[in-house]
Amino acid sequence: MRIIDTHCDTLYLRALHPEQAPCVTAEALRAGGVSVQTCALFAGGEGPKGHPYEKALAQLEVLERLQAEGWKTVDAPSQAQEGESAVLLSLEGGEILEDKLERVEAFRRRGARMIALTWNHENAIASPAKDGSQAGIKPFGWQVLAEMARLGMAADTSHLNERGFWDLIERHSQPPMASHSCCAALHPHFRNLTDAQIRALIERGGWIGVNFYPAFLTGGEATVADIVRHIDHIAQLGGAAYVGFGSDFDGIERTPLDCTGPQDVPRILDALRALGYPEETVRGIAGENFIAYFERLEA
Ligand SMILES: [Zn+2]
After folding, report:
1. pLDDT tens-digit profile of 252-268?
2. Quick one: CATH architecture of 3-298?
């Protein structure tokens, strides 16, 4: 079975906070049987003013070091191999581009396949859910999105505000995704998706990676059962073939009690089986749904 996780901040943690021990390690990925771990180049908590491009380059250097240690990378999730772990690269926070359109292609050449248009700050592309802004995608944002579509890069709506989200649903040429987002119906939080947003992502052929952060799952402590509740909610909205994992490991200061790193991901699959999910559906949620999403994106 191929297991895919569509978001972690391990490169940022290793580059900017080397004193902290990452939970995403080669050993943990192997122990969990994770075939593809998407690793984001994160813009950083200071936003557009915090030299996000420089920070992204520092994270690429970390990735190069890891590659020298034997970490593999893939250019598409379909290259995932059972029994092997590889990294897929993404960007979190479009301010990393620092308003330079040509950097979209430059990051694509370095292997990036997804861009989360915002983190929690407004940038030249769009506005985040966090600031309550009603502003839509900006003119530079549409230029970036057209370039991303040309290069086969997924538009990631995690952190994006609602108006920007609906702009993408209505006007972007390709199906958008949410790499690490939960359900607002189960826990209201500005970072969580409403049922209308979830339905729209399903209808557009998009994809949703459920975030493992307890603050988004329950607002208090959380366990694997809570991750499964959010997955099951999306499945009940018709999204069993459009959902998977976006752990946010190494970007969250707390994890579910019984899911503290990639080694514990198989527990989620077991919990889905215990709930009566057929093996085919479990395989989809584990990774095949995300591979199918990329096929729709590239079509
Ligand atoms: Zn995030």
Report:
1. 999 999 999 999 999 99
2. Alpha-Beta Barrel (3.20)
